[in-house]
Each structure stands twice: as C-alpha cells, then as structure tokens.
Automatic annotation (TrEMBL):
Protein name per its UniProtKB record: phosphoglucomutase (alpha-D-glucose-1,6-bisphosphate-dependent)
Oligomer status and interactors: Monomer.
Originating organism: Oryza sativa subsp. japonica
Cofactor: Mg(2+)
Native organism taxonomy: Eukaryota, Viridiplantae, Streptophyta, Embryophyta, Tracheophyta
InterPro entries: A-D-PHexomutase_a/b/a-I, A-D-PHexomutase_a/b/a-I/II/III, A-D-PHexomutase_a/b/a-II, A-D-PHexomutase_a/b/a-III, Alpha-D-phosphohexomutase_SF, Phosphoglucosamine_mutase
A biological process from GO: glucose metabolic process
Reactions it catalyzes: alpha-D-glucose 1-phosphate = alpha-D-glucose 6-phosphate; O-phospho-L-seryl-[protein] + alpha-D-glucose 1-phosphate = alpha-D-glucose 1,6-bisphosphate + L-seryl-[protein]; alpha-D-glucose 1,6-bisphosphate + L-seryl-[protein] = O-phospho-L-seryl-[protein] + alpha-D-glucose 6-phosphate
Length: 625
C-alpha cells in the first residue's frame, strides 16, 4: 500500500513505558448483471483487456473562485471521504440520514480521480504525456451499484480514461487487475461499502503501488467539490458522447491465481492438481462477493463444499451482513461446520478484503485469534519478523507473538494505517511480513501489502493441508491454544449530536478533551499509553518521523491504575471514520474491570468536561448502571 517513507532508524526500540517489552513496534449462480442506463455503451472485451480510447465529454471550465463561493455544496462531497475511501448513503431508508452519494457526486469524484491519476502517472513516468490511461471498475451486489456505476463510467470517461468493467468483483481482485499480466491496468476503483447497510455505497481507489492514502483521497474530493458546485450551478456539465466501456472477465483470472498458489505451495505428492481432495470446507459469503471462492477455487481443487451458506449475490443481504465480526455470521458458520463435519469454515465480508474462520471444533477464529493464527503461520516462515496491528489488540497477543520470537508493533486504528506502517518499516530495513487489524483486514508483504481476505484463507488452507500431510492431529485452532485472552472486552459507541457537517470537528474535540484531562491531572490514575510502538507518540496519533502519515481520525489509548487493584486494563477512544460517532474500546484482565473504568470515565470525564453536551453518552450510562 502507498506510504510516505520516513527517515527513521531501522532498529526498533522498546518504549520506556512498555512494561511487557513489546517493540514499538454445486452449481455456480447465474452471473450477476444489472441493466445499465442507455447512455452507457458496453463493449464485450472477452479475452482482450485493451480497448478503444474512452470518449471524453466537455471539460469543466469554471473558476475555482466562483465554485468556492458555494462552499456549503462543496462540503457535501468532502464529507463523503472516509479515510482512504469514499462512503455515503446511496438509497433512502436510513433514519436521520439523507441520500448523499448521488450519481452526480460519484461522477465528479470519478472525473477528479481520473484527472488526478493522469497527473500522477505523468510525474511517475517522465515522458508519458497524453497516453491512454486505463482504469478497471468493479462492484459488489448492492442495489445502487448499476445506477452509480453508470455515473462512475461517465466521470472517468470525461477525464479521458479508458474504462474496463469487471462487473461483480472483490476489492482485492480489483487491485490485482493492476498487477495480473493479462490486465495490468493503471488504476482500479471498487464500488462497495463493505459491511455497512445495503443503503450505503462507496469507492475504493487503487494504483499499481497500492491504495490511495487519506491525503490523496482528500485532494481528489477537494477537486470534486469544486466540480460539484459548478455542476449545481449549471456550468461545465455537457455530456458529450456516451462513454465506451469494455467488459472483461477478471474474476476467473484472479481465482486461477489463487488456485495456482495453493497447488504450488502444497505440492501434494499424490494429487498435485487437487490438493484439497478429502477436505470439507464451508464458505459463508453472506450474499456478498465471496461465493466465487467456493466453486472457482475450493471445488476446482477437490474440496467438498457441501453445506456452504448464502453464496448467491443479493444486494439486500437478507440473512445477515457479510462480516467476519458479526456474531450471527460466525454462529451460522459454526453450526454448518459441526453439522457437516467440516475441516474449516470461512466467513467473508461483502467485498472479501476481510475474513474469519471456524476450525473443525467449531471455535470461531477472528479478531485477536485470527491475528494470532496468521502470526503463528508467518513466524514459522519468517522467524523474527515484526507483526503490525492496531492498538486494540490484547497484551496476550503481544506475549503470543514474542513467545514465537516475533516483534509486535502496535499502531493507529485503521486498516490503511496499519498496512502503511508495515510498508514504512520494511523500507526502513525492519523485516515486517504481516500487518493485521482486529476487524479482519490483513496484509502480507508477499502479497503486495494487499488486505485480501481470500488470500488470508489461502494461507490458512495451505497450513491445514500441510498439517495433515505431516501427520499432525487437530485443526488449525491448535496453533493458538496458548493465546491468553482478556477477562473482559467491551465496545461502546457515542453518537455525535447535531448537524453532520460538524461531526468531525466535534469528534476531534471530544477525543482531544480526553487527552487534555489526563495531561492536566484531571483523570488521576489514567496514563496515556504510546502502545510500545516505534515512531508514534501521544496515544497512537502523532508520528515523530520527519514525514508523518496523514491523520484520518483522532484517537488515544490510556491505561487505568486503581489505587487498590493496580492496573485494571486500557481504554482506546477514537473517532469513527465511517459514521458520526466515537468508539470506546476497553479490555481488562480483571472481572468487573471494564465497568470500573467506564464508571470513572463517566464521572470524571464525560459528565464534567462538557463533552456530554454534544455527544450521546447513553450507552456508557447503561453499561455502568
């Protein structure tokens, strides 16, 4: 993934406050197709990934000064930015949330991305001036996909890009369309809102070097905001010729890529082409994009997938949200694994950049457990490597990694933050092969630093087969039997009150007030925790490198010490980048510790600081009482 590489030492140094010593460190469903508006021309590219130059519409010709006058309209676009992504409400039906991800919004964002991309490519490739810029576009099965997709095609075409429609796809596959030899596009856009409700949608942006950073997406949205204002004023909106869109089959090539990895790395001595023969694997795709893994990967490698769940894409996600953190998704998968005597269960999120698994005993492996499992596999392959996670992971996970000779670097919450940190460490000479967030986003150095839920499952499946080949008993869950888990964990959310346009500012204020209260001695017993990381201070927020990363949301982690019981645990408080709320994560090694910490926060921070005037603290109050 893209990262700004700081000039910092290659050797990780333990944090002075870090007492633990962790380093700062069946038959496939019918193809999913929807009718596109008639102003989009589709050309079937079949086996060829090259096509005619996309038609360009009229250029925007209006002054930025005139557009800036209507800043309120422009902010509609800026508020769609969620860290390195764009997300918004695409369909009516959410209480208190109006539709803001409209076709016009998508069109100007796509056009702005296309213009930015051309400029970026000209800088990266000196001498490239005015050549073809090729962009692939994929989407999940959300009901708004076809309508917004047409706007996306139109915006890219207005920017002079050649557009390649890969149809229903996964986010990792879209990125791989910039890498796989048959495609090798300059960039890709995936239309998805991941695990969010079906009324939402969004955009994820990729170049060959990886995903765009928050700062880059902010620049694209600023440019789009000016266009949006101009279009609302009736300026620069001539359509010109309808865009020519080439339709290509990406998912078959991506599935073959995954199959080849399994075959080559298992190298089965008796049936090389069907290394999963004799294995039963359940897949729960949640009616998202993950069904392909069942019939195009597992079954073609010999696996029995009888009992798999919700494989047919359905944009309303009628059974449960596709989400490996969802208790319903994991519970249904557990039941299917036990009912069918399966060796493994797999749960994908909507766009398959995250995953979780269930082992043969029915044990759910997600969150810290999944990070521990992947750490065990990676540390066996790369002894002594560093593992980067977000700052919500447990002290027990740190000890698990250290016991296997690895180093644990805790970093800011946010999958792009975690991945970019791994890129940075490798550039600084610190071998870092695994970067994972507790949500299930996981990236490997060997896989282009791409967060790919299917690739993570591929690694686990390879380990499962190897264990059987060498005669080891038990499921993959035996690899994490010694993981110590906290006595208690709690997640609470506090909604930010008032108009949405002020949510980010008020969220920052609330989180900064928490820090200030600790530093000013108003929260006796609380200590800001720098997480034992290598180049971040002030509670996972501010890089001390010469070139710090962009801050997409403010957050702090602090430990609480009781006068009589000693350290009770930690609290992590942060702005959400997806919704107007503040998330509070707690972990304690002592039963009742989370409630004690919550009560102290309520009494001495939330009720006395004035934060409760613009933040809904009801959930905290209910937990305490």
């Amino acid at each position: 993934m893209a990262a700004t590489i700081p000039a910092s030492p290659a050797t990780l140094q333990p944090c002075k406050k870090n007492v633990s010593g962790s380093m700062l460190i069946r038959s496939p469903p019918r193809p999913w197709r929807r009718r596109l508006p008639q102003h989009v021309v589709i050309v079937d590219a079949s086996s060829s990934s090259r096509g005619p130059k996309a038609a360009t519409g009229g250029r925007l010709e209006t002054s930025t000064d005139a557009a800036a006058v209507a800043g309120e309209d422009g902010d509609v676009i800026r508020r769609l930015q969620n860290g390195p992504d764009v997300r918004g409400v695409a369909l009516e039906g959410e209480n208190g949330r109006a539709v803001d991800l409209t076709p016009l919004a998508v069109e100007v964002i796509a056009e702005s991305f296309g213009e930015w991309l051309r400029e970026e490519l000209q800088q990266l490739e000196s001498g490239r001036d005015g050549g073809e810029v090729r962009v692939s576009v994929g989407r999940d099965p959300r009901l708004s996909g076809a309508r917004l997709g047409a706007a996306l095609f139109a915006g890219l075409a207005r920017a002079g890009c050649s557009v390649f429609d890969v149809g229903l796809a996964t986010t990792p596959a879209c990125f791989m369309s910039t890498k796989l030899p048959r495609f090798s596009y300059d960039a890709s856009i995936m239309m998805t809102a991941s695990h969010l409700p079906y009324t939402r949608n969004g955009l994820k942006f990729f170049m060959k070097r990886g995903g765009l950073t928050s700062g880059e997406v902010e620049g694209v949205c600023d440019r789009a905001a000016r266009k949006y204002v101009a279009r609302k004023m009736g300026l620069g909106g001539g359509r010109g010729m309808p865009p020519v869109v080439m339709r290509v089959d990406l998912m078959s090539a991506y599935a073959q890529h995954l199959r080849n990895i399994i075959k080559e790395r298992v190298a089965h001595p008796t049936h090389y082409d069907t290394p999963l023969k004799g294995f039963k694997v359940i897949v729960n795709a949640g009616n998202g994009c993950g069904g392909f893994f069942t019939w195009d990967v597992l079954e073609k490698l010999g696996a029995d997938t009888t009992g798999s769940l919700h494989l047919e894409p359905d944009g309303k996600f009628p059974h449960h949200m596709p989400n490996p953190e969802d208790t319903t998704a994991m519970s249904l998968t557990r039941d299917a694994v036990l009912d069918h005597g399966a060796d493994l269960g797999v749960v994908f999120d909507t766009d398959v950049d995250r995953s979780g698994v269930v082992d043969a005993t029915g044990a759910a492996i997600n969150g810290d457990r999944l990070i521990a499992l992947m750490s065990a596999i990676v540390l066996d392959e790369h002894p002594g490597t560093t593992v980067v996670t977000d700052a919500r992971t447990s002290d027990g996970l740190t000890r698990f990694i250290q016991a296997r000779g690895g180093h644990h670097c805790l970093y800011r919450v946010g999958y792009r933050n975690v991945i970019d940190k791994g890129v940075q460490l490798n550039a600084d000479g610190v071998e870092t092969h695994l970067m994972m967030e507790t949500t299930g986003h996981g990236a490997l150095k060997e896989n282009n630093f791409l967060d790919d839920g299917a690739y993570m499952v591929v690694k686990i499946i390879i380990e499962m087969v190897r264990m059987r080949l060498v005669g080891l008993e038990g499921s993959v869950g035996t690899l994490i039997m010694d993981l110590e888990e906290p006595a208690e964990s709690k997640l609470m959310r506090m909604n930010i009150l008032g108009e949405a346009k002020y949510a980010k500012q008020r969220g920052t204020q609330a989180v900064e007030t928490f820090r200030n209260h600790i530093q000013e001695g108003k929260l006796n017993g609380w200590v800001l925790d720098d997480c034992g990381d290598c180049s971040v201070s002030q509670g996972c927020l501010v890089d001390t490198n010469d070139d710090p990363f962009d801050v997409d949301a403010y957050m702090y982690r602090a430990k609480f010490f009781d006068e009589y019981k000693g350290e009770l645990g930690w609290v992590h408080i942060r702005q959400s980048v997806h919704n107007p709320n503040i998330a509070i994560n707690m972990q304690s090694s002592i039963p009742g510790g989370c409630k004690s910490m919550a009560k102290d926060l309520l009494d001495r921070y939330l009720l006395t600081s004035g934060v409760n005037e613009f933040v809904d603290i009801t959930e905290v109050q209910k937990f305490v009482k």
